[in-house]
Amino acid sequence: MRLGIRKSFKILAPGSSLRKRVAYSLTIARAILVPVIFLAVYYLFEMGWIVDRIVNVDAPAATLAQRASIEMLEARRAERNYLLLHDQSYLAANRESIEKTKGIVSQIHDLEAEDAGSTQKALRSLDLYEQRFATAVSAMAQPGLGDVDRIQSVVRAYEKDLDDLLRRSRAKRRAQLIDELRTRVGSFDAQITETVRAGNPALAQVTVDLQSSSQEVLELLAGLETENWTRVQGDHKEARQLMRHAEWALSIVSAITLLFSVWVSFILPRQVVKPLISLREAVDHAAQGHGAIDLEIEGRGEVAELAKSVHNLIVQLRQSA
């Protein structure tokens, strides 16, 4: 056997058991992932709730308010045509439009709890309109009808203007079309009212009351429409803010998780590999017969126990030799 100098190898295995360190690292990694999963689920549910409110509540309520306004405008048109022409078909059309309007307002009431006050007011105004229209129908039995030709010319001009507007409606948005319809109705109010008054003075006050009642209903419906579209815009803004918060929160937590994983990938292997390399060098030195070795073992755990076992084995082999 070749003689050589005695060489010392330092086996540094800091920390506790390797198994425990791996378990601790995995536990910390999972603990960091928990808020990531929680935040993702939280923001997912919040976003879903906002989208559900927009799609199933606010936007449908605004659309229903638009439909109710259109039906109310149809009821007013049928009302004026009946007062001018005394045609029973217009009376039936008015009643049908009023029933449709009531049904739509009731749907808004069931759909959006925040609109309960406005919808109740709209229903009461519709009931008042029906009562006043019934009074107007009763007053029609009194003598004093106006010039039929003059009345019919007013109606024809009114209907022609509405037909022209509807023919041009394809190139316009729905909201713009509704606004123009309201403008047309308002512009004809004075002319039609004056025509009815001239034909039957008993209807003078009734037509004024009818106009005020129907106008109140239209204003309430317009308010409902505006409120619900405002909610849609508010929900959209809230969703965008929630998305920004989610991006920031998830980015920060993901960055922390990434930094921790990088730290674990560098620190943990080095603490395991470095003492194993030193132990291999010691074994190679002893196997090649370069001389006795001393192992300075620091730490505890699996690596330190392995180093002690190897050192005992080398000592025994030298003693046997």
Describe this structure in words.
With 321 residues, the protein is mainly α. It has two domains: 7-33 and 258-320, no CATH class; 43-243, no CATH class. The chain is 83% helix and 4% strand. The protein contains seven helices and two strands. The protein has a two-stranded parallel ribbon with strand order 1-2. Helix 1 packs antiparallel against helix 2, helix 1 (18-85) runs parallel beside helix 5 (174-199) and helix 3 runs antiparallel to helix 6. It is rod-shaped, with a radius of gyration of 44 Å. The protein starts with 6 loop residues before the first strand and ends with a helix. The mean pLDDT is 76.
Blueprint (SSEs and pairs):
Elements (H helix, E strand, L loop, with lengths): L6 E7 L4 H68 L2 H24 L4 H24 L8 H20 L6 H26 L4 H84 L5 E7 L2 H19 L1
Helix pairs in contact: 1-2, 1-4, 1-5, 1-6, 2-3, 3-6, 4-5, 5-6, 6-7
